[in-house]
Design goal:
By secondary structure, the chain is α/β, with parallel strands linked by helices. The chain has one domain: Rossmann fold. Helices cover about 50% and strands about 15% of the residues. It contains 10 helices and 7 strands. A 7-stranded parallel β-sheet has the order 3-2-1-4-5-6-7, sandwiched between helices. Helix 5 links the parallel strand 4 and strand 5. Helix 4 runs parallel beside helix 5, helix 5 runs parallel beside helix 6 and helix 9 packs antiparallel against helix 10. The longest helix has 29 residues. Bound molecules: NADP nicotinamide-adenine-dinucleotide phosphate and 2-acetamido-2-deoxy-beta-D-glucopyranose (2 copies). One 2-acetamido-2-deoxy-beta-D-glucopyranose binds next to loops. Keywords: Endoplasmic reticulum, Membrane, Oxidoreductase, Transmembrane, Transmembrane helix. InterPro entries: 11-beta-HSD, NAD(P)-bd_dom_sf, Sc_DH/Rdtase_CS, SDR_fam. Belongs to the short-chain dehydrogenases/reductases (SDR) family. Its EC number is 1.1.1.146, 1.1.1.201.
């Protein structure tokens, strides 16, 4: 065991060194100037921060979520920060008619679309699976089927612009983890849908990039309030996370890993030493801090 640990540490060290010296940062934020972008789930958290970054880059922005007064405030701030234009449309993503409507709204406002950032998630609990399969089905509607619906609706515009689909997933969309059974199910489904679609796009010379973002624990209010104390690892900053997602999308990367050391590195263990990965992950939870289930 001691030898294995040393070996893993050595491999991780080498990989980190490679990552930090490989300098793959050819991102020029001005490439997003005048670009037409939809951001879902932008009334708070990472989505809100993405809207602010895009505003500073001079994009045309359409944001959506359910809470209208919050969207209004985010749009006002986007205008102040320098957005080419900023608009919002309130509604719920459990409604596929609404999901399509958001895309059609962008078409009406901008006459096209360059980037579709799918980021919203429905509410779920953080606790042992309660046996409610209906909740899993409802969450699949919001977290997955609305993503697929919006992508299908936006595809004609994205083909025309050679645009980008950016899908915000999670570390638990690549590895199972306790207390997130319904959520993790939906994030794994995104990988299946979008990674398969990406291959078909290659086969068919469809010039639309798909970027799947594998995100670790981030310091958004909702995440911190939900997992506070239970997950021992520190939360990474939402501003930087939002920037890395936009950057990966603009660079047409297949996947974004943020934070790199909390996602890509443990994922190296997934297929080769799954039990070791489980052991490390389980050590990271303090079950005594779990909040009682609502
Ligand atoms: N924070 C983390 O630790 C973390 C880790 C890994 C991955 N991620 C991923 O990052 C993304 C953003 O997470 P976040 O932490 O920023 O979450 P958040 O702050 O809770 O934001 C979620 C957004 O989705 C909207 N939303 C909720 N229910 C909705 C519904 N039924 N229809 C339409 N919109 C709805 C919310 O606004 P309304 O309530 O106004 O609708 C809000 O704008 C998610 O895809 C999440 O899975 C986050
Ligand atoms: C679904 O969305 C459409 C378009 O926004 C709206 O007209 C309809 O009332 C919504 N349905 C429900 C049940 O909210
Ligand atoms: C695909 O679209 C991008 C962005 O519009 C463009 O830079 C690139 O040249 C296009 N590639 C092909 C093969 O058309």
């Amino acid at each position: 065991m001691a030898l294995l640990t040393k070996l893993i540490v050595a491999v991780i060290g080498l990989l980190l060194a490679f990552y930090f010296y490989s300098g793959n940062d050819a991102f020029d934020p001005s490439t997003l100037k005048e670009k037409r972008v939809i951001v879902t789930g932008a009334s708070s958290g990472i989505g809100e921060q993405m809207a602010y970054h895009l505003a500073k880059m001079g994009s045309h922005i359409l944001i959506t979520a359910r809470t209208e007064d919050r969207l209004k405030k985010v749009v006002e701030k986007c205008v102040e920060l320098g957005a080419a234009s900023a608009h919002y449309i309130p509604g719920s993503m459990d409604n596929m008619t609404f999901a399509k409507q958001v895309v059609h709204e962008a078409e009406g406002l901008f006459g096209g679309l360059d980037m579709l950032i799918l980021n919203h998630i429905g509410f779920t609990y953080f606790n042992y699976f309660d046996g409610n399969v209906d909740h899993v089905r409802d969450l699949l509607e919001i977290n997955v089927l609305s993503y697929a619906t919006m992508t299908v609706a936006a595809l004609p515009m994205l083909k025309k612009s050679g645009g980008n689909v950016v899908v915000v997933s999670s570390f638990v969309g690549k590895v199972g983890a306790p207390f997130t059974v319904p959520y993790s199910t939906t994030k794994f489904a995104l990988d299946g849908f979008f990674s398969s679609l990406r291959m078909e796009f290659k086969q068919q010379n469809t010039n639309v990039s798909i970027t799947l973002c594998v995100i670790s624990y981030i310091d958004t209010d909702s995440a911190v309030n939900t997992v506070a104390g239970v997950i021992q690892q520190p939360a990474a900053p939402k501003e930087e996370c939002a920037f890395e997602i936009i950057k990966g999308g603009a660079l047409r990367q297949r996947e974004v890993y943020y934070q790199y050391q909390a996602t890509k590195i443990p994922l190296l263990l997934r297929d080769w030493a799954p039990e070791f990965l489980e052991y490390i992950m389980l050590k990271n939870y303090d079950v005594t801090k779990l909040k009682p289930q609502q």
